[in-house]
Amino acid sequence: MLVSYRRVDELAVISINNPPVNALSHGVRKGVLEAITTAQTDDSKAIVILCEGRTFIAGADISEFGKPIEEPSLPQVNAAIEDSAKPVIAAIHGTALGGGFELALSCHYRCALDSAAVGLPEVNLGLLPGAGGTQRVPRLIGVKAALDMITSGQKISAQKALEQGLIDRVFDGQVEESALAYARELITAGAGPRRISEIAIPQESFDSEAFDAYRNLLRKRKRGQEAPQRIVDCIEAAMEKSFDEGLVYERSRFVECCQSEQSAALRHIFFAERQAPKVPGLDKAVAPRAIDRVAIIGAGTMGGGIAMSFANAGIPVTLLELNQKALDAGQALIARNYATTVSKGKLSQEQAVARQGLISGTTDYEDLADVDLVIEAVFESMDVKRQVFGRLDQVCKEGAILASNTSYLDVNEIAAATSRPQDVVGLHFFSPANVMRLLEVVRADKTAEDVIATAMALGKRIGKVPVLAGVCYGFIGNRMLRQYAREAQLCMIEGAEPGQIDGVLTRFGMAMGPLAVGDLAGLDIGYKARQALTDEQKGDPRSYCIADALVEMGRLGQKTGAGYYRYDPDTRARSADPEVLAVIEEQAKLQGVERRVLSDEEILDRHLMALINEGFRILEEGIAQRPGDIDVVYVHGYGFPSYRGGPMFYASQRGLSAVYERIESLHKSTGEAHWAPAPLLTELVRNNQTLGDWMAKKN
Ligand code: T1G
Fold first, then answer.
1. C-alpha of residue 577 to centroid of ligand 1, in Å
2. Reading across the β-sheet that carries 401-404, which strands appear in turn?
3. Cα(427)–Cα(456) distance, integer angstroms
4. Which domains does the chain carry?
5. What is the pLDDT of residues 138-169, one digit of tens each?
6. Are 33 and 80 in contact (CB under 8 A)?
7. Considering only CA atoms, which of 169, 248, 197 is closest in space to residue 82?
8. Which of 107, 146, 191, 400 would be 90's cystine partner, CB 3.0–4.6 Å?
9. Catalytic site includes residue 380
10. Side-chain half-sphere of 518: how many Cα atoms within 13 Å?
């Protein structure tokens, strides 16, 4: 039963039971309304609303979005609760989020377990609180605090919420027992209904200028996103209008958000992140292996970041380096990273010390004899990796998982260096590994099922979004990046300058443009990798001649103060450099390229179509399990704007036939083989099918 009603002495208890997170489905809304109505007519003296299972209501049922809203709507339920003639008490445990917290705010009192948290995270779905949150919160905690809470979407601990006045009582122990005791206390004290809607918003100097200043702040912090701006509008309306008028205004803006492409994209990512760790065909009976102790080989930037990811999740780590000097340097880097996090107030000193205490160092492989998982993060050389895996094969216990953090090498070849290929897997982290949430789990030919199950579970345990990838050059993300990066180089030599290319893509929503990314990573990385390749393997010289010329001039990027851009030594602010334009023009001449003006639209299309076309190839080859996995990779690993849903979602929104036409036109105009439309894309367009149709047929 979704909602039950029972009496406990003088109390009415409404209990919601809609696993997994008590989302406010239509059935729940209907049940709560019926229960509140019942309670008005019996001789109960107060009403307690609580939830079964792991959490109080975690919000509206996101899976219902995009469908017609069935009455009663949440605002109707909340109005009935707030209008109740008897005091209504919300008993919160777990996370009361979104519509769940809005329902709690329409109650007259709120109590919570000290382990609970509350929040209005709608902004992360391209939405805004559509059931009174933008009107009630400022009446409780003031305008500025409301703006911060709702535009950030962050959870607030029960203790902090108590201090702010969002909830009235915090207790530990059993939530129902404590809540009923609190309700009886209120009855004894003669406390009646207390309606937030009747509170006048504290008059404070938050005038229209302050609101506009806040909007400008959000234009930077939430660049390109519509919902944060609408939230400001709603909170400004709360100050200017009556409560009822404010509710009407909020609802109208909420409906706009629900219908927006940005919200559809963000809801797609929400579910895609949760779908990605699931591996169809992996027998549910396959239990992950226990991972209690981990070792990392290599204490460089990647190794140190990976070690922090595990320590942050409370898992002890042994960091191995070739010699004490390198080990000390690695541990010093980790210490600096933690110190930075503490200085930003994101971690207490005690927490930093505790986490660092979980990371021990060694230069002796014998110390790895009893670890459950080893992750190799050494230099991207197959020879070096095969040596390391040969050594691990000698020292590690039976059943230990041996993983490589390689970003594009063949994991099958690495596995072949051991006597236990079934225990070898790729775990590709993204730099900085302690921050970036993406984890590509690379399944080699012989990787055992329980190793994959372990990798997926472990990825979630350390707060990553694990995505399964097959073995190919660059797996999912880096394979698509090569096509994208090629277009940046070709657009540059054909006529665009770095600033135009990066400007187009950052205005689209990319976190950084491709050339600025090159300068950040260092142009010498690609240069060195190319030195090991034949001319044929290097591909079209037009796609690297400028980068090579810059490296040979000593322009390696940010680390030398100059690359595609010049960098201010103090602020690291980048600026266009006429010297680079001279290099570009010289290389164009050497390559026989007649430079021309490229439109912003052409530049954007070429970059996006390059990603999408390769994405279709990755799907048809089975390197990725589903389109949403590719979207999760590109949003969480490469700065693709989440409010556009990722490359494959963007392609679906634009329409596959339009995408096909655009790619085919590039194919015709360039004659380049890489612009041949991917067979899967061609087939879907020919059969007038969507990627959803393809997935439905596949499953
Ligand atoms: N609706 C539907 N399904 C949901 C859901 C929701 N709100 N939240 C979670 N799930 C599913 C999820 O897909 C997964 O399913 C399972 O529950 C466990 O989730 C009117 C309009 C609550 C902190 O944004 O933040 O209210 O994969 O893996 O890591 O103003 O889920 O098992 O099949 O994430 O322990 C606002 C979203 C909605 C909260 C738990 N609320 N959820 O985290 O488990 S909009 C939110 C979360 C709204 C009102 C507006 C987290 C969690 P499956 P999980 P978790």
1. 48
2. 359-362, 317-320, 294-297, 373-376, 401-404, 424-429, 438-443, 465-470
3. 10
4. 3-258 (3.90.226.10), 294-469 (3.40.50.720), 477-590 (1.10.1040.10)
5. 999 999 999 999 999 999 999 999 999 999 99
6. yes
7. 197
8. 107
9. no
10. 30
The span from the CA of 617 to the CA of 693, in Å, is 17
Written as six digits, the tokens of 271 are 């579910």
Mean pLDDT throughout 559-581? 94
The secondary structure of residue 568, as a DSSP letter, is: -
Assign 547 a pLDDT band (cuts: 50, 70, 90). very high
Ligand 1 cavity residues, CB under 6 Å: 20-21, 23, 58-63, 74, 95, 97-99, 102, 121-122, 125, 127, 129-131, 133, 274
- The pLDDT, as a whole number, for residue 203 is 66
Half-sphere exposure of 699 (CA within 13 A, CB side): 9
Atom index in ligand 1 nearest the CA of residue 121 equals: 24
Question: Token match 């010093």: residue?
Answer: 332
For 211-220, the pLDDT digits (tens) are 999 999 999 9
User: 21 alpha carbon to ligand 1 midpoint, in Å?
Assistant: 7
Helix (H) or strand (E) holding 680: helix 679-686
Distance CA 56, CA 130 (A): 18
pLDDT band for position 204 (cuts 50, 70, 90): low
Please identify which residue in the block is written with the tokens 């392609």. 651
Q: What is the position in ligand 1's atom list of the atom closest to the CA of 270?
A: 13
pLDDT of 363 over the 70 cut: yes
* 122 in catalytic set: yes
> Residue with structure tokens 């540059």?
492
Q: Which residue type, as a one-letter code, is found at position 212?
A: D
Query: What spacing in Å lies between the alpha carbon of 116 and ligand 1's midpoint?
Result: 16
Catalytic residue among 34, 70, 102, 198: 102
The residue written with tokens 């209690």 in the block is: 292
At 672 the three-state DSSP class reads coil
Provide Rg for the chain, Cα atoms: 28
Ligand 1 centroid to 465 CA: how many Å? 15
**Under 8 Å between Cβ of 295 and 357:** no
Average pLDDT over residues 261-268: 96
**Mean pLDDT across the chain:** 95
pLDDT over 90 at 437, yes or no? yes
Which atom of ligand 1 lies closest to the CA of 271? 13
Nearest CA to ligand 1 atom 42: 58
The model's pLDDT over 595-648, given as tens digits with 9 standing for 90+, comes to: 999 999 999 999 999 999 999 999 999 999 999 999 999 999 999 999 999 999
Ligand 1: residue of 16, 62, 279, 464 to mutate (most ligand atoms within 8 A of CB) is 62
**Which CA distances in Å does 462 have to 338, 353, 433, 434?**
17, 18, 11, 10
Phi, psi angles (nearest 5°) of residue 498? -50, -45
d(CA 684, CA 71): 38
- How far, in Å, CA of 289 to CA of 422, rounded? 13
Of 64, 71, 82, 122, which residue is the catalytic one? 122
Give the helix, strand, coil percentages of the chain, each rounded to 5.
Answer: 55, 10, 35
Among protein residues, the one with the nearest Cα to ligand 1's atom 41 is 59
Query: Which residue is closest in CA terms to ligand 1's atom 9?
Result: 21
Q: Which atom of ligand 1 is nearest to the CA of 460?
A: 29
CA of 58 to the centre of ligand 1 (A): 6
